[in-house]
Amino acid sequence: MSKALGAEADALLLELAAITSRPGMIARFYLTPEHRRAMDLVGAWMRADGLEVSEDAVASVRGIWRCGKPDAKRLVLGSHIDTVVNAGRFDGPLGVVAPLLALREARRAGLRINHDIEIIAFGDEEGSRFPATFAGSLALTGQFNPASLDGLDEDGISLREALIAFGKSPDDIAKAAIARETFAGYLEVHIEQGPVLEAEGLSLGVVEAIVGQTRGVLTVTGVAGHAGTVPMAYRHDAFQAMAEMAFALERRARSGRDGLVATIGKVSIGPGLVNVIPDRAVFSIDVRSSVDATRVEAVSMFLEEAHAIAARRGCTLEYVESQVAKRVACDPVFRAGLAEAIALGGQRVRELPSGAGHDAQVMAALGPSAMLFVRCKAGVSHNPAEFASHEDMGDAIAALAAALPRIGNVRNDTD
To answer: Which terminus of the chain has a smaller tally of CB atoms within 10 A, N or C?
Structure first.
C-alpha cells in the first residue's frame, strides 16, 4: 500500500517538475509565470480533495480541511514549490504532495481530530530570486519585514514590484498571518538532503533541531585599470581581494566546530572584460552551525579579516546581511507523535538534526513545529540526481497519516 502511495506522490511531483523556465532542467522561481502555473496546479489538487483554497498576499497557496468542531485551531502542513537552478523534483514539493495524500488517507480511515488542517505551498524558500527569503512563512507568522520589499532581483525588479505585477498587494501582507491563539502547530515533510538515513538503512527520521544560518552579500570596490600597464604592486584589484576573502572564509569554516560550514555560492565581477583589472566584486556568504554562538562568532571574525584584506589591497568593503535564522529545536510533543507513527510501521526511530534551513524554522516562532525526514539517495539534493524511492515516500505518507490524529489531539484542551 505504501509503495502505491509513493508512486502516486511521484506522479504529482513529475507534473510539478514539468513546470520550468529553463528547458532540460527544473528552474522555478518565486513570482514568475512558472510559479503561477505551479500554484494553479497545486490549487487544483487541493480543490479535487475538497479543500477550501485561497491565496494570500505573498502568493502562498492555502487549502483548508475543516474538522467540524467550533473554535477549532489550525494544524498547518506544507513546504515550498520554488526551486534552485537545475534542481531535483523532491526538495520542497514533496512536503506539499505528501500531506495532501496523507490527509486523504487519514480521512478515508475516518480521521477524528480536534483541529482544522491547512496545507500550504509556500512560494519562496530557496531565495533563488530575491535577497531575502521565507516570504511565505514569515508572512504567516507575522514576521515579514517590509524592508525586504525593496530587495532587487538580477533584473533590478524589486520584490514589491514583482508582487504587484503578480496581482498581489504588499499592503495586505499582514492579513496573511495566523493568530497565535488559533495556531495548533506546523509539520513539514522533507527529503533529508544528507546521507545518515541511507547509511543506517532507514526510510524515515525525525528532525530534532534545525541549524542556525546567516546569509549576506559583500561588495568589494577597487580601481579598474589596464591589464597590461598597471604593475602588480600598484593594483587595487577587487577580484583578488575577494579571492583572498574566500580563502579566509573557508579556512575559518574548516575548523568544523559545532558543524560550522560556510559557502560562497554567488559571485559577480565587474566590468567583466578580459583586459581590465576588476574594480568590483560582489559575492554571497552562507554560514551555518548547530550552535548559534559559533556561527555569530565565525561571521564576525570573518568580516573583521575581510575588512583588513580590503584595506591592505587598497579596496573598500561593504557588507549587507540579508538573512539570520537562529537554531530551532523541534517541538518534543510533535516529535513524539511522529516517532510513534514511524514505529507503527516497524522501523527504528532515528532523530537527527537538519543542516538546511526550512519553513519549519520560521513557523516555530508561532508555536509547535516539527519535521519528518525522508531518505534520499546518496544524500544528494539541489541537484537533478536528487531521488527518493516510491517505497520511502509511501512510508512518509503513511506515517504522516498515522501521526495526524496523535498530534492533532494531544494538545486538545491543554493549549
So the answer is: N
* Residue-range domains of the chain with CATH: 2-211+327-410 (3.40.630.10), 212-325 (3.30.70.360)
Q: How far apart are CA 303 and CA 214, in angstroms?
A: 13
Q: Are 264 and 248 in contact (CB under 8 A)?
A: no
CB 396 within 8 A of CB 79: no
State the Cα–Cα distance between residues 319 and 204, nearest whole angstrom. 40
Phi, psi of 158 (to 5 degrees): -80, 160
Q: Are 188 and 86 in contact (CB under 8 A)?
A: no
pLDDT at site 410: 54
How far is the C-alpha of 310 from the C-alpha of 218, rounded, in Å?
11
Phi-psi region of 82 (alpha: psi -120 to 50; beta: other; left: phi over 0): beta
Residues 6+ apart with CB under 8 A from 135: 30, 58, 122, 123, 124, 144, 148, 159
Q: Strands 52-55 and 73-80: what pairing?
A: unpaired
Provide the pLDDT for residue 224. Answer: 98
Nearest CA among 186, 1, 193 for reference residue 76: 186
Cα 80 to Cα 140: distance, rounded to the nearest angstrom: 13
User: What integer pLDDT is reported at residue 48 of this predicted model?
Assistant: 98
Helix axes 292-312, 238-253, angle to 10 degrees: 150
Which among 345, 238, 338 has a CA at the least distance from the CA of 281? 238
82 within 8 A of 124, measured Cβ to Cβ: yes
Extract the C-alpha cell encoding 222.
Answer: 577597487
Q: How far is CA 99 from CA 105, 209, 232, in A?
A: 10, 21, 60
